[in-house]
Each structure stands twice: as C-alpha cells, then as structure tokens.
Design a protein that fits this description.
four-stranded antiparallel β-sheet; alpha+beta; disordered C terminus; SecF_bac; 14 helices; 6 strands; Alpha-Beta Plaits; 2 domains; two-stranded parallel sheet; 68% helix; Multidrug efflux transporter AcrB transmembrane fold; 382 residues; transport
C-alpha cells in the first residue's frame, strides 16, 4: 500500500485527524489576505475588459516580419491615441482601439497595410459597438446571478439552508479571488473568461457537495446521542474526503496547466489563455474553499442552533464525567499495585470515528483467567 493510500485509510478510520474546523481562524486569515489583495486589484486597477464588453475595434495583422512597435507607431500615426498592441503567436499582431466609425476603420486598415508591408486582405477587422458590449456585460451578470440562485435552492432542498449559505460563501470567495487576480495581472477579460469562471464555480460546487454529503452522513441523528459535537463529526467528514478532493483537483489542474504552458506559451492561442487562467485559478481556489472555508462556516452556523448547543453541553458533561471516572480508577489502581480490569488490560475510550460509525480496527484481548476458570454452566447463567 502506498503512503497516500495508507494516509487516506488512516484519515478515514480516524487514526489520524487534522483539526480543520477547530483551526478555522488560521484558514480564514489566509483567505482574508487573498481577498484583500483581490479587492485592491479590483477597485484599484480595475478589470481590463475586452472589446466584447466595452466596445471598440480590433485589427489582426498576419505578418511574420512586423513588430509590435511598428504596429503601435502605425496606429498612432493613423489617429489612434492609445492603441493596445499585442503579439499573438509568431505571425500575428493584434491592435485594439476605442470605438470607431466605418470610415475611420478603413483609414486605419489602409495605414497599417502600408506601414507593415502587408495587403489589406491580411488584416482582419472586428468592430463592436458600446451598446452591444454593455448588453454582453449585463447578460454575463444575469447568468452569474441565476447560477448562484439555482445553487442556493438546490443545496437548500438537498441539505438545508445553513449548508447552502456556507456553499455560497465559498463560491463568492472563489469568484472574488479569480476576478481579483485578473485585475492584478491585467489579463484581458473576454467571453472565454466568463465561460471559465462559470466552469470553475461548478467545479467548486461539486467539491463542496462531496464534502457536505459526507458531513450529512456523519451528522445524521447526532442530536440523539452525546458522543460528539456537530463540529467534530463534520471535521471527521473533512478528514475522510480530503485526500479525494486533493487528488481530484490535481488531476483537473494538470490538463489546465498543459493548456497554459503549451497552448499559450508555444502555440500563442490567446483565447486558450483567457480560458485556462480562469480555470487554473478557480480550481485551486475552489479546492481550498471546499476544505477550509465551506465546512467551517457551515459548522459555525449549525453550532448556533439550540439543539446543537444542548448537544455540545451534553458531550462536554459526558467527557468530564469520563475524565473524573478515569481519574478515580487510576487512583484505585495506584492504591492496589498490579490491579487491572476484568480482561487483564487497561481500558481505553473509543475513538470518535468508532462513535460515529466509521470503520475502525478493534483489537480484542483474551478472556480473563477468572472467566476461563469458571464451570461452563456458571458462565451460561451469567
């Protein structure tokens, strides 16, 4: 058995446990730092919206000899005050300008063909009006809002509203970090970016639902006992699913990283860059939030319920009673050297995983010498 498989088994059985819920303040602090940076980028630099959202004109020049500096100078000489010029691959140059009329577009196209030594058929032109760009922006926001409402309704029906709110917090967390990194890096926001953002929100939701489903299983009927609090049962669920979540995320990130490195670095595909960056950032943020944000927030909301507060009180009372009983038993053994329990072994409390029904390995000692020495008839009567 590999080390990862061994660790996963020990986490699932409760032999090893990381206190994700108990140390949630540390993880909240890490998220707060990333969110602060994202908000600084979002409200400081702002998003670099593509012409599909803000309107404008885009000229794509096919030339293996022209440079970005030549294209910028040619566009400025044609009357464009602040053109955005980038190279796409090894044989294309993209020039973006503010909104233009058809006559202005034809004049710039002629100027570019003359200065860069290409024919006008080698220059592609795309004109987007500002009204169409604002309509695309409105539609994208509407799609995002509808998606979030559908998520809340689904999780409320399948789980309950507190878990739905926790999942929504995690989704907003992922969304803000992804958009903030776009603002900080200055990457252009295109329709491919919107597709990528919606995709990673779905992936983040999938990961959160997997964890919440295990939490639901571990906490079913928990208020009828006094063995563990809701947070402890949820933390066990996190430990039982954390390896699966990480493995799934790594498998998802590998092809996205390949798109970034090969599709963008070698092939120079700009559309792939916009899509892959959103997927990469969002998938990583979604994995983090499903483990360190969603479940701890859900536990905080659940622990405010009166029945969960009563459960926590009963669990604390039971454990304090067990500690007192153990102390008295230890004192009794100390006064009677060599004394043991009936089985000849020291008694130990059951682990949390065993209390909640998770599979554990239980070792049983041999019967005591006193029981083996009794006649069979007496043992049956007992």
């Amino acid at each position: 058995m590999s080390r990862v498989s061994s660790l996963a088994h020990r986490l699932y059985s409760g032999e090893v446990s990381f206190d994700f819920v108990g140390k949630r303040r540390r993880f909240y602090a890490v998220s707060a730092v990333f969110l602060l940076l994202a908000l600084i980028g979002l409200f400081g630099r702002g998003l670099n919206l593509g012409i599909e959202f803000k309107g404008g004109a885009e000229f794509t020049v096919v030339s293996s000899t022209a440079t970005v500096e030549q294209a910028r100078a040619s566009a400025q000489s044609a009357g464009v005050s602040a053109p955005i010029v980038t190279s796409v691959g090894s044989d294309k140059i993209r020039i973006q300008t503010p909104s233009l009329t058809l006559q202005q577009s034809d004049a710039i196209k002629t100027q570019l063909a003359s200065d860069l030594g290409v024919t006008q058929s080698d220059i592609g032109v795309q004109l987007v009006g500002p009204s169409w760009g604002s309509e695309i922006t409105k539609r994208a926001l509407q799609g995002l809002i509808v998606f979030l409402i559908a998520v809340v309704l689904f999780l409320t029906v399948y789980f309950e509203w507190r878990l739905a709110m926790a999942a929504l917090v995690a989704l907003v967390h992922d969304l803000l970090i992804t958009i903030g990194i776009y603002a900080l890096t200055g990457f252009e926001v295109t329709p491919a970016t919107v597709i990528g953002v919606l995709t990673i929100l779905g992936f983040s939701l999938y990961d959160t639902v997997v964890v919440f489903d295990k939490v639901k299983e571990n906490t079913r009927g928990i208020t009828s006992s006094n063995r563990a609090t809701y947070s402890e049962a949820a933390n066990l669920a996190l430990n039982q699913t954390v390896v699966r979540s990480i493995n799934t995320s790594v498998v998802a990130l590998l092809p996205v990283a390949a798109i970034l490195l090969i599709g963008v670095g070698l092939l120079g595909a700009g559309t792939l860059k916009d899509l892959a960056l959103a997927l990469f950032i969002g998938t990583a943020a979604g994995t983090y939030s499903s483990i360190f944000i969603a479940t701890p927030v859900a536990c905080q909301l659940q622990e405010r319920r009166p029945d969960m507060k009563a459960l926590a009180t009963r669990v604390a009372a039971r454990r304090s009673g067990s500690d007192a009983k153990g102390a008295r038993s230890g004192n009794a053994r100390a006064t009677s050297p060599g004394a043991t329990d009936e089985s000849g072994e020291d008694s130990t409390s059951s682990p949390l995983a065993s209390d909640l029904g998770a599979p554990t390995v239980v070792s049983t000692g041999a019967r005591s010498q006193t029981q083996r020495s009794r006649p069979r008839s007496q043992r049956k009567k007992r």
